[in-house]
Amino acid sequence: MHDIIIIGGGPTGINCAIEAQNAGFDYLILEKGVLVNSIFNFPANMTFFSTSLNLEIADTPFISHNDKPTRREALEYYRRLLESYDLKIEFDAEVNGMSKSDGHYIVHTESKSYKSKYIIVATGFYDQPNKMNVVGEDLPKVKHYYDEVHHYIRKKVLVVGAANSACDVALECWQKGADVTMAVRSSALNQRVKYWILPNIENRIKEGSIQAHFNTTVKEIKDRTVILNTPDGEVEIYNDYVLAMTGYAPDYTLLTNLGIGIGSDEYRTPNVDEHSLETNLPGVFMAGVVGGGLKTNRFFIENTRDQADRIIREVELREGIA
Description:
Blueprint: E1 2-7, H1 11-22, E2 27-30, H2 37-40, H3 52-55, H4 71-84, E3 89-90, E4 95-101, E5 104-109, E6 113-121, E7 142-143, E8 156-160, H5 164-175, E9 179-183, H6 198-207, E10 211-213, E11 217-221, E12 225-230, E13 233-238, E14 241-244, H7 252-258, E15 284-286, H8 307-318
Parallel strand pairs: 1-2, 1-6, 2-3, 6-15, 7-14, 8-9, 8-14, 9-10
Antiparallel strand pairs: 4-5, 5-6, 11-12, 12-13
């Protein structure tokens, strides 16, 4: 029996755990993968857009060589928090549902169940890529996460997407010697792409260094080719890898299995009280980027850092502590 169970061992889950620990609550983090699983799956050489100062949690300095930290530095930071606070966390504990008994919640994983009075859902969204739902998407050549460029040197690479990730990936692969083609569903690249990236890739497309098909979708992926639906009809191109940078979404199956309501708005925003961060389930709170639903640019680590404190203060009020 725990006071609080936190679902998700990312930056927000860690922040919630530290606040719960400082308040004297018995808590447990359930993480389906490894520590900060989403950041672990970021590109190997990724640099954060935010500064290390804006990413700090629990008044613990985030030390990085430059103003904006790398993935490697972030992983080290969260490992340090884990050890410094001796956080209670179970890895490889994927939650698949929740029930209620005697006024308490029972959180279920494949192998075990956990009882708690309060629940904090901090699952993020990066673990759930938006699928293209096309024939061949399950082939080994298709990647929904970009790892590092070395795999793609002198390979024919199709990058699917038009936002920051797609443009970053297309440029890096081209710079390191890949033959890059882009498939863009709309008539232009996303104009909110980072200001230092957008003109660069637009110029590469204009000069023909990177081939781009606009108003185009993927129809089928084969072992050695890809079929595209373009304004001029079907086009089949030779291909070694498909890098589907099509964005990510919350795990709505999990949210539904937990019993959390989903709004009918276009972003499928979870039902969360803006002030208390409580969901439609009494005593079940939601923290971090998952609260934005499909509007995945609404919340970030840096603008949700206060949510852990808000939730724990709310729990203290209900327990008559504060």
